[in-house]
Amino acid sequence: MFIGFDYGTANCSVAVMRENTPQLLTLENGSALLPSMLCAPTREAVSEWLYRHHDVPTHSDENQALLRRAIAANRDEDIEVLRNSVQFGLASLHQYVEDPEEVYFVKSPKSFLGASGLKPQQVALFEDLVCAMMLHIKLQAESQLPEQIDQAVIGRPINFQGLGGDDANAQAQGILERAALRAGFRDVVFQFEPVAAGLDFEATLNEEKRVLVVDIGGGTTDCSLLLMGPQWRERADRQQSLLGHSGCRIGGNDLDIAPVLYTHLRAHV
User: Which helix (H) or strand (E) segment is 192 a member of?
Assistant: First the structure.
C-alpha cells in the first residue's frame, strides 16, 4: 500500500487514496498534523531506540559506528532506552518543557538536511532522526489501515534550505530517501512540493496552462511557474514542466517566532 507523505519543516502529514479521493490520516490526538519535533533522553538514545525496539538496520559503516558509539555512551551514562523513551510531536514538546535541561529536543530537522559542511557522522545522525520520525508516522498510519505501508510519494522543495545548490539538494534528498528505506518503505519516489500542491487544480484543466503556485511552508516560501494540463498529469518526472522558481528561507515558523520576539524585546526596552 502507498501513501502520500508530507515530511514538512513545521508539520508532517500522510494521506491515502480511498475511492479516488485523498484522505488524511490522524497522527496525534485526532489531528492529521504531527509537529516536526522529537525528544529523547540523549542524542544517542535515538539511534539505540531504532535498533533495540524496531530492528532498524544500519546500512552504512557510518551508521554502524554511530550505533556503537550510542550504545556505549548510554551505557556509560546508565541510561536505559525504553520503547517510550523517544517522543514525537506535541508529546515531545511537553516532555521538553517539563525538563529542558535533561532531554535532547529537536525541532524542524528538515531545515538542516541541506546544510553545507556536514561531516559523515552528522549526516548519519540526521538520517537517524528523520528515520525515527518517519517510522513513528508509518506506524501511526498503519494502525488505521488494513495492510502495511511499503510505498511512499514524498514531497520535497525545489531547493532545500542551504547554500550548496545542487549538492545541498542531493544531500538532503539522499538523507530522506535512506531514512525512508530504513523505516520500512520498499519504494520511495519524490515529487516537487509546488507540483503536489497544484495537482488538485491541474485535475480541473482541459488544456495546458501556465500556473503560478505559491507554496508557503514552515521553513521556506516558494513561488513556481509550472506547465499544467492533461498532458502532464500522468508524468512521474515533472522537471520539464517547471518553467521558473524563486523562493526565500522565510516561512510559517518565522511568523510564529516574530510576535514572541517582538513582545520580548519590547518588554526589555
Answer: strand 187-192
